[in-house]
Write a structure and sequence with these properties.
Layout: E1 8-12, H1 20-30, E2 34-39, H2 41-54, E3 59-62, H3 68-82, E4 85-90, H4 109-130, E5 134-144, H5 156-176, E6 182-188, H6 202-212, H7 221-232, E7 243-246
Parallel strand pairs: 1-2, 1-4, 2-3, 4-5, 5-6, 6-7
Helix pairs in contact: 1-7, 3-4, 4-5
Bound molecules: nicotinamide-adenine-dinucleotide.
The site of nicotinamide-adenine-dinucleotide has 27 residues, from helix 1 and strand 5.
Length: 260
């Protein structure tokens, strides 16, 4: 019997088969979870729908997290299809390309607010709307990056957003713990995805990562999926409010020899 047999959940953030959310969806499905998927806009729907159907998804719905009405409609549909849910995966982030390039100091007010709205507030908005549907023992998961803790060139406003997201994980975990609902994040090493392609110098960062990480390799969406499986299963039932690094050990290192 799979680790997630009988569990139902929502996965937000699949854009294509390179998405971290897709790696997570495959791992959760493999262990028996029934999953609903969301997309933003028709172009992404064309990519998401066939992937979701591959996993027999009973729910494929639009949800732009900047619109409370779309979040509310998603939860109504979720209740109709699943009743309660046990899993909620938030793998969503966005900042304008202009903000992911050069000095952080150049960040605009509009660019800052947009990055915070899509990449940070969306988690709180989703959890708030999903709360009545969350079954006891439910697990909520989001995705963060080391740029929340340390300065990574060009990551800029997204690093500030990820720091706020990591704090949100702790506050939400404290709020929902008494209902036996857990909230955690995975801090993934760099992976070549649509979102990552917007960060200046990402290819070089991705390449040098494997040279510096203790395990001397990059991480894959399958690696993140397997860690997500643990955080979404009862095997991690006493773990909440945590940031789990899935980054081949990169974050434990100080300056690389090239920098020192
Ligand atoms: P991706 O481009 O595959 O996924 C990003 C998703 O965000 C897309 O599905 C997109 O539709 C969604 N999104 C953007 N704006 C949205 C909105 N307004 N409403 C709803 N959805 C919206 O890229 P990814 O790298 O798989 O990103 C998933 C998560 O992983 C992000 O939070 C990202 O910051 C994080 N992450 C990525 C890396 C990496 O190197 N790729 C590393 C660590 C963390």
């Amino acid at each position: 019997m799979g680790l997630l047999e009988g569990k139902r959940g929502l996965i937000l953030g699949v854009a294509n088969d390179h998405s971290i959310a897709w790696g997570i969806a495959q791992a959760l499905h493999r262990e028996g979870a029934q999953l609903g998927f969301t997309y933003v806009g028709e172009a992404l729907e064309r990519r998401v729908r066939p992937l979701a159907e591959q996993l027999g998804a009973p729910l494929i719905a639009p949800c732009d997290v900047n619109h409370d009405a779309e979040i509310a409609a998603l939860m109504t549909r979720t209740q109709e299809v699943f009743g309660q849910i046990d899993l909620l995966v938030h793998a969503i982030a966005f900042a304008n390309k202009d903000e992911l390039n050069g000095p952080y100091l150049r960040t605009t007010r509009a660019g800052f607010l947009l990055a915070m709205e899509v990449s940070v507030y969306s988690l709180t908005a989703l959890v708030k709307a999903a709360e009545p549907l969350l079954a006891p023992g439910a697990a909520i998961l989001t995705l963060t990056y080391h740029g929340a803790q340390k300065v990574i060139p060009n990551y800029n406003v997204m690093g500030v957003a990820k720091a706020a997201l990591e704090a949100s994980v702790r506050y939400l975990a404290a709020d929902l713990g008494p209902r036996e609902i857990r909230v955690n994040a995975i801090s993934a090493g760099p992976i070549r995805t649509l979102a990552a392609s917007g960060i200046a110098g990402f290819r070089a960062l991705h390449r040098s990562f494997a040279e510096q990480a203790p395990l001397r390799r990059n991480v894959t969406i399958e690696d993140v999926g397997n860690a997500a499986l643990w955080l979404c299963s009862d095997l991690s039932r006493s773990v909440t409010g945590e940031i789990l690094y899935v980054d081949a050990g990169f974050n434990i290192m100080g300056l690389s020899s090239a920098e020192s």
